[in-house]
Design a protein that fits this description.
The chain has one helix spanning 2-25, and strands at residues 30-35, 40-47, 57-63, 87-89, 92-98, 101-103, 107-113, 117-124, 127-132, 137-141, 154-158, 162-166, 171-176, 192-197, 202-208, 219-224, 227-232, 236-243, 246-251, 256-260, 272-276, 280-284, 289-294, 313-318, 323-329, 340-345, 348-353, 357-364, 367-372, 377-381, 393-397, 402-405, 410-415. By secondary structure, it is mainly beta.
Length: 417
C-alpha cells in the first residue's frame, strides 16, 4: 500500500511539474509552420527577433475599404465645410474627399496582437492574409519588418527537429495555437519588468530591449574601460540610464557595470518596448528612459485570453450635445476591437488596443484623453487617431442612421465593453 501511495505521489508530482513548465510556455507564441515545399514544423516561435509572446504586436499596413462610406453623402452627418479638396503631385493623389471622408492614402498603419490570430498565409513578397479567431480575414502589407522579405528572422523551436530559421519566401502558412510543448525554450524566458521614465511614469509588462532582445538568453553588448562585455539579460537585475552615451547595469550578483559604446546602452537605442496586457504597448526612447527593473510576471497571458475581436460599439457625443449609439469606425479605418489606436506624449509612443479602451475624450484640436478599462488615463497627441487630422468618426446607429462626425464636432466616445 505504501508503495502504491508513493507511486501515486510521484505521478502527481510529475503532472504538476509538466503543468508548471507548460504554464511557463503559456504566454509564448506557438504554432505550426508549413513551407512552400509542404514541410511542417511545430513549436515555440520567435518572430522578427522582437516578438515572442501573444501580447506582442504584428505591425503592417491595412488597405482602406472606401466602399463602406459611399452612401454617407445622402445621410445626416457633421463635417467640415472646406475639406472637399484634392491635391495631386506628379499624378499622385495626396488627399481627396470621398463620400464625406478625407482620405490621405488608400492604406493605413495597422497592428494586431498575435493572440488574436488563428492563421497567417504569405500571399506575396510583402503581404500576409490573417484569419482571426473570429473568422474575419485581414490583409496586411509591409510597413515594418514584421511582414515580407524585410523580416529579420522567423525561428521555430521544433521539439523533434531542433531550432530552424526561415526566410519569408520559404513560408506558406503559420497556424497558431496554445503551446503543446513542455520543453523550455532555448532562448530562455521572456523578459519582464517595470520601466520608469525620466518623468516618473511607470510601465510594467513584457520587455523588448532596443527592438531586438526579448529573452533572458539574449545579449546586452557594451564596453567597460575599453573592454568589450557581453552580458546575458538573464543575469541582469536592472539597467539605468547613466547619460546619453552610457548605462549602469546592475547584475543579480550585485556587480555594477558602466557600459558604453553600442546602441544597446546609448542614445542610438531604437527604443524599449513594454507590452502591458492592460492597454497594449509603450515604446520609450533613450532620452526619456530612466530605469528598467527586471522581475517575473504574476501570471502569463495565454492564447485563450484573446477573442479575435468584434465590431467596435458605443456612443459618440458631439459638441452640440447630440449622441449616436451603434457600430463605430474610428478615423475611417479602425472598426474592430483588435485594432490599435496610436499616439505619443512626452517622448513615449503608445499603441492601445481598442478593445481595452473605455472612452476617448477630445481635449483640444491636437490631443485626446484615453481612458482604458482598468481606469488608467493617457493624454495622447501626434497621430491622426487623436488629433485634428482624424479622418472622421462614423456611426451606424441602432436606429438605422449613418452618421459622420468630424473632429471639429466630436466631443467624446464611450465604448461598450
Amino acid at each position: 500500500m505504501r508503495l502504491v501511495k508513493l507511486m501515486l505521489a510521484m505521478s502527481f508530482l510529475a503532472v504538476v511539474m509538466a503543468s508548471s513548465v507548460l504554464a511557463g510556455n503559456e504566454g509564448r507564441i506557438y504554432g505550426r509552420i508549413t513551407t512552400v515545399d509542404g514541410d511542417t514544423f511545430e513549436g515555440l516561435i520567435r518572430w522578427d527577433k522582437n516578438e515572442g509572446s501573444w501580447v506582442d504586436v504584428l505591425d503592417g499596413n491595412k488597405k482602406l475599404d472606401e466602399s463602406l462610406f459611399d452612401d454617407f453623402d445622402s445621410d445626416r452627418r457633421k463635417k467640415y465645410s472646406d475639406r472637399g479638396k484634392k491635391v495631386t503631385i506628379f499624378g499622385m493623389t495626396i488627399s481627396r474627399e470621398s463620400g464625406g471622408i478625407f482620405i490621405s492614402s488608400n492604406s493605413a498603419q495597422s497592428g494586431i496582437r498575435f493572440g488574436h490570430i488563428r492563421k497567417m498565409e504569405a500571399i506575396g513578397k510583402d503581404k500576409v492574409l490573417l484569419t482571426l479567431k473570429s473568422g474575419e480575414k485581414v490583409e496586411l502589407s509591409g510597413g515594418s519588418t514584421d511582414i515580407g522579405t524585410s523580416v529579420r528572422e522567423i525561428i521555430i523551436e521544433d521539439e523533434s527537429k531542433g531550432e530552424i530559421e526561415f526566410v519569408w519566401e520559404d513560408i506558406d502558412a503559420v497556424e497558431l495555437m496554445p503551446a503543446k510543448s513542455n520543453k523550455r525554450s532555448g532562448f530562455g524566458d521572456r523578459l519582464y519588468g517595470t520601466l520608469t521614465t525620466r518623468r516618473g511614469e511607470q510601465f510594467t509588462g513584457w520587455v523588448c530591449w532596443d527592438m531586438d532582445e526579448i529573452f533572458t538568453g539574449d545579449i546586452l553588448d557594451g564596453s567597460e574601460k575599453n573592454r568589450k562585455r557581453k552580458i546575458e539579460f538573464g543575469k541582469i537585475k536592472a539597467i539605468e540610464r547613466y547619460s546619453s552615451s552610457g548605462a549602469m547595469v546592475t547584475l543579480k550578483s550585485g556587480e555594477e557595470v558602466l557600459l558604453r559604446g553600442t546602441n544597446d546602452v546609448n542614445d542610438g537605442n531604437r527604443g524599449i518596448v513594454v507590452s502591458d496586457p492592460g492597454f497594449g504597448q509603450a515604446v520609450v526612447k533613450w532620452n526619456e528612459f530612466e530605469r528598467l527593473d527586471f522581475g517575473s510576471p504574476a501570471r502569463e497571458v495565454g492564447y485563450d485570453a484573446f477573442d479575435g475581436g468584434r465590431k467596435l460599439r458605443g456612443t459618440v457625443y458631439t459638441e452640440d450635445g447630440s449622441s449616436y449609439t451603434g457600430d463605430i469606425v474610428w478615423d475611417a479605418d479602425e472598426a474592430y476591437t483588435w485594432e490599435i489606436l496610436d499616439g505619443e506624449y512626452h517622448g513615449v509612443e503608445y499603441d492601445i488596443e481598442f478593445g481595452l479602451i473605455k472612452s476617448i475624450e477630445k481635449k483640444s484640436y491636437r490631443s485626446c484623453l484615453v481612458t482604458v478599462a482598468d481606469g488608467r488615463e493617457f493624454r495622447l497627441r501626434g497621430s491622426n487617431d487623436v488629433d485634428e487630422d482624424n479622418k472622421g468618426i462614423f456611426v451606424w446607429t441602432d436606429k438605422g442612421d449613418k452618421v459622420e462626425i468630424v473632429w471639429e464636432d466630436f466631443s467624446r466616445v464611450e465604448f461598450r465593453q
